[in-house]
Amino acid sequence: MVSARSPRLHVDGAILGYKRALRTQNTNISLIKIKGVDSTQDAAFYLGKRVAFVTKNSSGKFCVNWGKVVRSHGSNGVVRCTFARNLPPQAMGGRVRVMLYPSHV
Amino acid sequence: MTVSKTPRYYPAEDIKPAKKTHLVKQNPPRLRKSITPGTVLIILAGRFRGKRVVFLKALESGLLLVSGPFKINGVPLRRVNQAYVIATSTTVDVSGVNVKHIDDVYFGRSKDPSKAEGEDVFFEGDAPKAAIVSDERKEDQKKVDEVLLKAVAAVPMLEGYLAAHFTLTSNDKPHLMKF
Fold first, then answer.
1. Is A42's CB within 8 Å of B168's CB?
2. Which residues in chain A have their CB less than 8 angstroms from residue B179's CB?
3. Alpha carbon of A85: minimum distance to chain B alpha carbons (Å)
4. Which of A49, B43, B75, B163 is most buried (CB neighbours < 10 A)?
5. Arithmetic mean of pLDDT over chain B
6. Which residue has the higher pLDDT, B65 or B17?
7. What span, in angstroms and rounded, lies between the C-alpha atoms of B39 and A55?
């Protein structure tokens, strides 16, 4: 059997934006939609998990902005995350990796 | 009635008495119920991410002692943090494995006296040094794996299972998986 050379041990997530009201937003907290997660019950698995926002800097090196899933947001599986450095607004719609650790299984 | 004289010597500045520090004893993290000796664990991060390994025992620091077995997937006797591990429901019989002499001190960094020269380190450059595995480790690995490999061979397909990586593929939902 052909096995993946580097296994995928994260779940993809999409950056929806910041926690916000209609006219004000809290840029310290980003909202993340984790792929395949559609309810608060499912999102409970991911609470506390580390999240990685990966970018490439001008010299071509990969940089990671680490964050974590802090709590669920709403009833459809969206999740609130805080990062070491707040996510840039250009990142909205971008990809984020939700790791499987710290694991409680 | 006693009369106390002021002593002839006293310090120029008032010395405050040392504060009583309330030392809180930190206990090592509790072992999850799903992790028992012989459980197959999936390592989630680090050099051996994705590998399935056999759990041998919990060390005093709370870290888990784990072995590949080395011949099957290249994971040596190693410590792993509980938080970076998923416990599966698969178990291997490790009753015959003797790891009593292995503890946290065994894995401690040894201060190499030959590396005392600071200047040389600067001029050495970025040549990666090959990991020096001590003979003690190789011996212990052999002894542990001898027993482990027999136990693994007794279960059908387990050797292939331990050799394979764990990976997520599309449509996999970890929150719905039964490990």
1. no
2. 105
3. 22
4. B43
5. 83
6. B65
7. 37
Indicate whether A81 pLDDT > 80.
yes
**CA nearest neighbour of B35 among A104, A35, A5, A49:** A104
- As a whole number of angstroms, the distance between CA A101 and CA A49 comes to 5
List pLDDT tens digits, range A6-34.
889 999 999 999 999 999 999 999 999 99
Contact A62, A56 (CB under 8 A): yes
How would you classify the pairing of strands B85-91 and A50-56?
Answer: unpaired
Residues A2 and A68: their CA atoms lie apart, in Å, by 33
Quick check: A101 and B44 CB within 8 A? yes
CA dist B171 → B48, B51, B86, B164, B175 (Å):
24, 21, 19, 20, 12
Share of chain A above pLDDT 90, in %: 90
Using a CB-CB cut-off of 8 Å, the residues of chain B touching A64 are none
Q: Which two tokens stand for residue B123?
A: 């001029």
The pLDDT value given to residue B173: 92
Amino acid sitting at position B63: L
Residue A14: other Cβ atoms inside 10 A: 15
CA angle A49, A24, A84 (to 5 degrees): 30
d(CA B58, CA A95): 37
User: pLDDT digits over B87-102, tens only?
Assistant: 999 998 888 888 888 8
Task: Point out the residue among A9, A44, A46 whose CB comes nearest to the CB of B44.
Answer: A9
pLDDT tens column, B39-61: 999 999 999 999 999 999 998 88
CB pairs under 8 A between A and B: 62
Q: Distance between CA atoms of B156 and A19, rounded to whole angstroms? A: 51
Interface predicted TM-score (ipTM): 0.86
pLDDT of residue A1: 41
Of A97, A105, A104, A7, the closest CA to residue A50 belongs to: A97
